[in-house]
Amino acid sequence: MNKATPNVTSSNKLYADTVTIHPRKVKGPFRSIKWWLMAAMLAFWHLAPFIRWDRGPGVASQAILADMAGRRGYFFFIEIWPQEVYYITGALLFAAIALFFMSALAGRVWCGFLCWQTVYTDLFVLVERLVVGDRSARMMLDRAPWTASKLAKKTVIHAAWIAISALCGIGFTLYFGDAFQTVREIFTLEASIGTYSAIGIVGGACYLLAGFAREQVCLYMCPYSRFQSAMFDEHSLIISYEAWRGEPRAPSRKGESFEGRGHCIDCKACVQACPTGIDIREGLQMACIGCGLCIDACNTMMDKVGLPHGLISYDSEANLFARAKGEAPQTKLVRLRTVLYTVLLAAIGAGMLFALGTRHTVEVNVLHERSPLFVPLSDGSIRNGYTYKVLNMVRKDRIYSLKTVGIEGASLEVVGSGQGKGAETELQVPGDQISTYRIYVNVPENNVSNIKTPLQFVLTDKADGHVVQSETIFAGPGR
Ligand code: SF4
Ligand code: SF4
């Protein structure tokens, strides 16, 4: 009996071998923009936690802070409590739509210029270039046998990568505690295990992803590269090789005419400059992160052979075809999808601004006690118990009056307050915290005929008259 054997041989593997990509150094406007953005983003990441913001005495003065111990998030003048996590949801939604909008207009600018994977990979490649040299020197070093010189160069590279990764991890921890104090604690070995663990995890991820995984992250790990093409249309800006002008390609000799042939001199400078190692002449590919470095590389070659720039262009597909047909290119920014994204961004932005502008500084939560649901008292009344929580989000004590609405003759009693029963009671709520009260509501039995009767708690700020109403029920035996 013949057994079926898997059709896998050494030359027909299930997975391609990973090839280390050594991008070639290029000069040009896209490279310059990437350097400037890298500098700006790294500066912000590492310096932003040191920006101060005065919130008054006894309160964190760090402008951007996730205060885990105080269960609070600070962003300049905005202060978010855990109960207000919907603001973060709104911000994430806004960011996601902004990314879609950016992609529809300008292609993968996020991937090519703003993604932290791109930024740190660029920085790590810069380290390699400074220590070893450009692409060919790095490739030669990789192929060379292990010598003292190779070992020394590799050690310097990895030491620099580890230092950068550690700084990345330290930068992360500074957003979770006072930055000045955290830095002091880290370097005097007084920081918590949690802080060192966070540095290890974030720094380790940086070292592995930017040092080793590199373009594999974009190709296999990042979901955005998989669905970003769904956000493109024929007017979105993409990186394209203008085949109509470049083909038929052929190497060129000095002084040779370009009559009757394409402008691509097949120098492969675009391929060698590409951080993901692709050949853009084969068309738009998922692996293209839209960094524009192939444009810089190609334009440099075009200068050398005296041809105009733009053999590889950053333009829309529609304009690419228009140029191929000799028509004038047009930029069409207003399209159905860009209008839709603009409307969505405006709606979410306006909603968040409105929510922030009209933000309540007090929140109430009422929980009806279930065991027992009600207690018949000897004076003929029915008693229900409630847990009543007041979140006072300002840093000063507040005095409230509390009453109920919905059942006639109801009286309130705050357990342990020393106040007697009454139709209305007073709550003193300390500033900047959640206060929990146990409250009894007593109602004459004749006034509650149902098993469940709707009841409202009405909390009124005695200083400014602001009212917070909370719906609950009053349980009775029913008749
Ligand atoms: S093809 Fe060009 S734009 Fe795309 S990733 Fe490579 S160098 Fe960057
Ligand atoms: S850099 Fe330009 S000329 Fe050279 S191979 Fe690429 S497309 Fe052709």
Describe this protein's structure.
There is one protein chain. This protein has 479 residues and is of the alpha+beta class. It has 3 domains: 29-225, no CATH class; 229-324, no CATH class; 362-475, Immunoglobulin-like (Sandwich). Helix content is 40%, strand content 19%. It contains 15 helices and 14 strands. A hairpin with a 5-residue loop joins β13 (452-461) and β14. α2 packs antiparallel against α15 (336-357) and α4 (116-131) packs across α8. The longest helix has 26 residues, at 148-173. Mean pLDDT is 92; it is low at 1-10. It binds iron/sulfur cluster (2 copies). One iron/sulfur cluster (SF4) is lined by residues 239, 273-276, 278, 280, 288-294.
Give a quick precis of the structure:
The protein contains 15 helices and 14 strands. It is α+β, with helices and mostly antiparallel strands and 479 residues long. The strands form four sheets. Strands 6, 7, 8, 10 and 12 form a five-stranded antiparallel beta sheet that branches.
Q: Which ligands, by name, code or SMILES, are bound? A: iron/sulfur cluster
Kindly, what is the distance between the CA atoms of the first and last residues, rounded to a whole number of angstroms? 83 Å
Strand proportion:
15-25%
Q: How many strands, what sense, and barrel or not for the largest sheet?
A: 5 strands, antiparallel
Taking pLDDT < 50 over at least 5 consecutive residues as the criterion, the unreliable ranges are: 1-10
- Helical content (DSSP H or I, runs of 4+): 25-40%
Q: What is the 3D form?
A: elongated
Rg, rounded, reads: 33 Å
Structural class: alpha+beta
Mean pLDDT: 92
Number of helices: 15
The total domain count is 3
Total DSSP E strands: 14
Q: How are helices and strands ordered from N to C?
A: HEEEHHHHHHHHHEHHHEHHEEEEEEEEE
